[in-house]
UniProtKB/TrEMBL annotation:
Species this protein is from: Alkalibacterium subtropicum
Classification via PANTHER family: ASPARAGINE--TRNA LIGASE, MITOCHONDRIAL-RELATED, ASPARTYL/LYSYL-TRNA SYNTHETASE
Protein name as catalogued: Asparagine--tRNA ligase
Main location (coarse class): cytoplasm
Cross-referenced SUPFAM superfamilies: Class II aaRS and biotin synthetases, Nucleic acid-binding proteins
GO CC annotation terms, alphabetical: cytoplasm
CDD domains referenced in this protein's UniProt entry, alphabetically: AsnRS_cyto_like_N (cd04323), AsxRS_core (cd00776)
Gene Ontology molecular function terms on file: asparagine-tRNA ligase activity; ATP binding; catalytic activity, acting on a protein; nucleic acid binding; transferase activity
Listed HAMAP family: Asn_tRNA_synth
Record keyword Nucleotide-binding present: yes
Family membership noted in the UniProt record: Belongs to the class-II aminoacyl-tRNA synthetase family.
Amino acid sequence: MKKIQIIDSKKHVGEKVKIGAWVANKRSSGKIAFLSLRDGSAFFQGVVVKSEVDERVFEQAKSLTQESSVWVTGTISEDARSKFGYEIHIEDIDVISEAVDYPITPKEHGTEFLMDNRHLWLRSSKQHAIMHVRNEIIRATYEFYNKEGFVKIDPPILTGNAAENTTELFQTKYFDRDAFLSQSGQLYMEAAAMALGRVFSFGPTFRAEKSKTRRHLIEFWMMEPEMAFMDHDDSLEVQEKYVAYLVQSVLDNCDHDLDILERDKDLLKKYTELPYPRVSYDEAVELLQKNDFDVTWGEDFGSPEETFIAEQFDKPVFIVNYPKAIKPFYMKRHPERDDVVLCADMIAPEGYGEIIGGSQREDDYELLRQEIVDFGLNVDDYEWYLDLRRYGSVPHSGFGLGLERMVTWISGTEHIREAIPFPRLLNRIYP
């Protein structure tokens, strides 16, 4: 008898199969039992009819506890009443392991309780769907960059210097010297781009930022492409093409998951239409001031400001050319202005905030060296980075996309903590 996964049921309609699963829930009457089964690939219904099975099998079905693991044997059939579309008519049940007093019952639970039991909460249908969306974004990322001629490079997690704000570094001892957990792989990706042209990385990054907002994590994953011989405008085109590709891939391959999440697919489809609008930082400030926001030129935008700007458009929007004083040292100055840099943040619709930050990198040795000094950084720590400007410097650009922010937006999830399997928050490192 063939063993299959639930997700492959459509290939085996009318066949007798065996499936290993957990019992997510159950209900029964005097003559029939309905089992909600999951196996990691999907959820579907198992039906046990008393008149069609041994009495032992029916009594076993009625006594199964939530999250007990079982082998079920039966015939796959179509089920037009369910969104999944298929079910199994069970003939036999073999209990693998009985679960006793599973803590997450079908009733409502508080967020802190669910986070304390994150290792079990992942089993629920909504969390299952979010993880599928996350997986599809990762899969589609590799596909996109491979198609575009990029090379995957892995920057180090332990670094000897800061990429951005030195106050957000996690410090550790590296034998007889200090080291830090990576804030970003960008500086190393620039070195890789000078060797391989177009590169991308995907890995964990860490920010010791004491924030409790729904958009922030202490540990998160970043997609960071870096591109030689590309200016700022070239980079914006890659960014919007990439984001549209991710949205379309989720629509194509996570249809059932989006149903579980009750996500508006027509709205998501709108986000695949290019190009995305662009507004300058100057225009954004003017727009906010006209609508009674208390903002001054030179300040960074917070969540309310980003949300308002995004609401003026029906697609993601780029805010370009931020003030130099609020951006990292490596961003290239605007050719016509000393007070702004060639950079952009992509703001997602629906109040999800920034999902991409990027810029053209400063390629002039003297200017970059002076910026390192002006930022109060130790030039000796950045000699290797300056070498990239000494030996064959070229115009180059790059950006970083926060995976969890992308997952939160596409899945329509309220809080970023549900977009990663085991979130690390200001007050949480368990489980």
